[in-house]
Design brief:
- By secondary structure, the protein is of the alpha/beta class.
- It has two domains: 193 residues, P-loop containing nucleotide triphosphate hydrolases (Rossmann fold, 3-Layer(aba) Sandwich), CATH 3.40.50; 118 residues, CBS-domain (Roll), CATH 3.10.580.
- 37% of the residues lie in helices and 22% in strands.
- The strands form four sheets. The protein has a six-stranded mixed sheet with strand order 6-7-8-3-9-10, with helices on both faces. A four-stranded antiparallel sheet has the order 2-1-4-5. It has a three-stranded mixed sheet with strand order 11-12-13.
- Helix 9 links the parallel strand 7 and strand 8.
- Helix 7 packs across helix 8 and helix 16 crosses helix 17.
- The longest helix has 18 residues.
- The two termini are 37 Å apart.
């Protein structure tokens, strides 16, 4: 179910903005319309859906229309034409009067701004509680809710500090806490981290990812930074000249660019940080430890032309690997079980592990990496050749700079 549905959204700046819409439909460009009419096209027939609990990133170069789209979602900027439907009730915010629109902004769609938007004369807790205060909530209750939001963003102990006593990153946490205090359905974040130093910005991105795991909010996030979009977005919409050029997962944007514009956008991205194990894994040759013995193992390896099998238990959980030499020796001895020859020489990884993190394992082990889900069920394997091929395709040198994300052991 979509949390936000945007249908044929237009925003034209200038007198008689509606006159630009038929020209756009006839194929005129943004620049041609500006020259012909003096009207500025900010959004050109944008349509998209944001799913519940999704982090949806809208990105593009300066002037692409991304921030205008965000402000049209809660009518901080009035759209020229189109619909914005929110929630299960599919309420069209275009139909809301001024009073109801204020309620929507306070309770259903909270906004986090690039420049923090804090009141310098108010303490942290009073900044966070501001929306609750103007909504008429009693002081004790709003202080409690504000305190919970402050704790959520890691600012306990700073409740009575003023904004000028905080670092830029801490001020942004206050802005985020203020948005969270209302417990909104939707968070709108407009270049929320772009004013921060790179290290603080990276920390805030990590903080947002951790918060989202706990909160499961619907987030619309605006950025001009592709690396930021790839890091935090479940899906990404790329805009150019007011129009949406492509919508897709980070991996789709990177591996299946819709046109030359998107291709140029992503050409310098480190693919090995985005391409994951599940993208390049293949089916694993396996046996069941409960029913398959050395004879079956040897026969299967010969038939498939492999020298290694992946051993699963009766619940298809991964146990380890066996080799053709060990299985043949047991078969010749008449042993019926492979239990004693199971090895743990193969590395393991979760399906969302980036290829870059698999490289050390690929270089140190002769066996393909086993890709496991959280229950340690075998999804597939990734061989050394596939990993190194991706690294070389990216134009980087193989180095041992990261460890694979492993799957937790089960007793």
């Amino acid at each position: 179910m979509a949390a936000i549905t945007v249908q044929n959204l237009y925003k034209i700046f200038g007198k008689k903005p509606e006159e630009a819409i038929p020209l756009l439909k006839d194929g005129m460009s943004k620049d041609e319309i500006l020259n012909k009419t003096g009207l500025t096209v900010a959004i050109n027939s944008a349509s998209f859906e944001v799913q519940k609990q999704e982090t949806f990133v809208i990105m593009g170069l300066s002037g692409s229309g991304k921030s205008t789209v965000l402000r049209c979602l809660n009518r901080l900027i009035e759209p020229t034409q189109g619909k914005v439907l929110i929630g299960d009730d599919r309420e069209n915010i275009m139909d809301a009067d001024k009073e109801h629109l204020l309620k929507l902004r306070r309770k259903r769609m909270s906004m986090v701004f690039q420049n923090f938007g804090l009141f310098p004369h108010r303490s942290v807790i009073n900044n966070v509680a501001y929306g609750l205060e103007i909504g008429g909530m009693e002081k004790d209750e709003r202080d409690q809710k504000a305190g919970e939001a402050i704790a959520m963003v890691g600012l306990e102990g700073y409740e009575h500090k003023k904004p000028n006593e905080l670092s830029g990153g801490m001020q942004q946490r206050v802005g985020l806490a203020r948005a969270l205090a209302n417990d909104p359905e939707i968070l709108l974040m407009d270049e929320a981290f772009s004013a921060l130093d790179p290290l603080i910005r990276a920390d805030m991105q990590d903080e947002l990812l951790e918060l989202q795991q706990r909160m499961s909010k619907t987030i619309v996030f605006i950025t001009h930074d592709l690396d930021e979009a790839l890091k935090i977005g479940d899906r990404i919409a790329i805009m150019k000249d007011g129009a949406i050029v492509q919508i897709g997962s980070p991996e789709q944007i990177l591996t299946e660019p819709a046109d030359d514009y998107v291709k140029a956008f992503v050409q310098n991205v480190d693919r090995t940080k985005i391409i994951t194990a599940q993208t390049i894994m293949r089916k694993a040759p396996s046996i069941n430890i409960k029913k398959d013995g050395p004879g079956v193992a040897v026969r299967k390896m010969k038939k498939k032309g492999v020298s290694t099998l992946y051993v699963l238990d009766e619940n298809r959980r991964y146990k380890g690997i066996i080799t053709i030499d060990d299985a043949t020796e047991l078969k010749n001895k008449g042993v019926k079980s492979v239990e004693d020859i199971i090895r743990d020489d193969a590395g393991t990884a979760a399906p969302d592990t980036p290829i870059k993190h698999l490289l050390p394992t690929a270089l140190s082990s002769i066996y393909p990496v086993a890709v496991l889900n959280d229950d340690r069920k075998l999804l597939g394997i990734v061989d050394r050749a596939s990993i190194i091929s991706e690294v070389n395709l990216n134009g980087t040198s193989p180095t041992n700079e990261a460890e694979p994300k492993t799957v937790p052991e089960h007793s």
